[in-house]
Amino acid sequence: MKAMTYRGPYKIRVDEKPEPRIQHPNDAIVRVTRAAVCGSDLHLFHGMMPDTRIGHTFGHEIVGIVEEVGSSVETLNRGDRVMVPFNIYCGSCFFCSRGLFSNCHNVNPNATAVGGIYGYSHTTGGYDGGQAEFVRVPFADVGPSVIPDWLSSEDALMLTDAFSTGYFGAQLGDIAAGDTVVVFGAGPVGLAAARSAWFLGAGRVIVVDHIDYRLEKARTFAFAETIHLSEVADVVLALKKATGYLGADVVIDAVGAESDGSVVQHVTGAKLKMQGGSPVAVNWAIDSARKGGTVSVIGAYGPLGSAVRLGDVVNKGLTLRANQAPVKRQWPRLLEHIQQGLVSPSELLTHRFPLEHIAEAYHVFSSKLDDCIKPLLVVGEE
């Protein structure tokens, strides 16, 4: 089969790889029809994440058609159109039984923290991802879901990570009616978090970024106020002014490991890999929150330590909440919102590439060319 393979930082290509096979009675093989490139894929592409091995196939946003099922799979049949959450999880361990699917204890040898993730290096289990013609889906009875007939494949694709993660970020903020919510980052996840904040009762939403076209999308898609980083001398001071010098009730870090804003932090965190990523965005979030407020962190960071202002968290009485999204928990409510016409997540998909042109997709997305918000990969026939 054709599959994207990692050849080293900034080097990917499409190669021929063996088709995946059933390895366990509860596996399924899915023929991928649509996939996407995620901002966290760029962390791998840029060499940010440890133990990303040559030949690994990325991709954790997947929809497709069930090609084969193992002998114990009961919920799926050959020919089903399915959406596959980025979490790989068993559904029955201590953490899964509490709805913490992203922290499953049975799918990752490094599961002291995160569980399994498709196509996200061997720190998350080493599973090949879905930027390929076929993908093996473990624990097929608990992960993927059949896509409702009324739901488009592109909307379903956005629920496999980006939009569900943004919604989860807003949930972590524990937003109360009328709250002022600030979102750092106007990429797909940040835009989803900003739009979702309204669903949870926000009275005001402000999005911070440094790219014009992404801020325009924040205004038109997320109905948010915006702050352009290059137009203010001090973004924390600007946010304090905008909130009556109190700070925001809820601040969401949707940027993660490659945030700009401090040369020292960016170089040590994002370039030299001396930290688990640049902590600029999360520190701005801590400083921008009001005393007693909540900071939600859904941006991806590596496993190394980071220079986070923990003292400010303590002294301001902040609640700091973070995790990888347990995607499937968000689906029932999000499906209601989509069916009621309140949101169409696929509006965030701006570019379409065939799998054979995946290197171009990564280049356009990484370099923020042609007003790219999120690239879709057209892999196979639906």
Folded structure, characterized:
It is a single chain. This protein is of the alpha/beta class and 382 residues long. It has two domains: 2-161 and 326-378, Medium-chain alcohol dehydrogenases, catalytic domain (Quinone Oxidoreductase, Chain A, domain 1), CATH 3.90.180; 167-322, NAD(P)-binding Rossmann-like Domain (Rossmann fold, 3-Layer(aba) Sandwich), CATH 3.40.50.720. 26% of the residues lie in helices and 23% in strands. The chain is built from eleven helices and 17 strands. The chain has helices at residues 39-45, 153-159, 162-172, 188-199, 212-220, 235-242, 263-271, 280-288, 310-315, 327-339, 358-366, and strands spanning 2-8, 11-16, 28-36, 62-69, 81-84, 87-88, 116-117, 134-137, 145-146, 180-184, 204-209, 225-228, 248-253, 289-297, 319-322, 351-354, 375-378. Strands 3, 4, 5, 8, 9, 16 and 17 form a seven-stranded mixed β-sheet that branches. Strands 12-11-10-13-14-15 form a six-stranded parallel β-sheet, sandwiched between helices. The chain has a two-stranded antiparallel sheet with strand order 1-2. Strand 14 (289-297), helix 9 (310-315) and strand 15 (319-322) form a beta-alpha-beta unit. Helix 3 packs across helix 4 (188-199), helix 3 (162-172) packs across helix 10 (327-339) and helix 6 (235-242) runs parallel beside helix 8 (280-288). The longest helix is centred in the last third of the chain and has 13 residues, at 327-339. It is globular, with a radius of gyration of 20 Å. The protein starts with a strand and ends with a strand. 53% of the residues are buried. Residues 262-269 have low confidence and may be disordered.
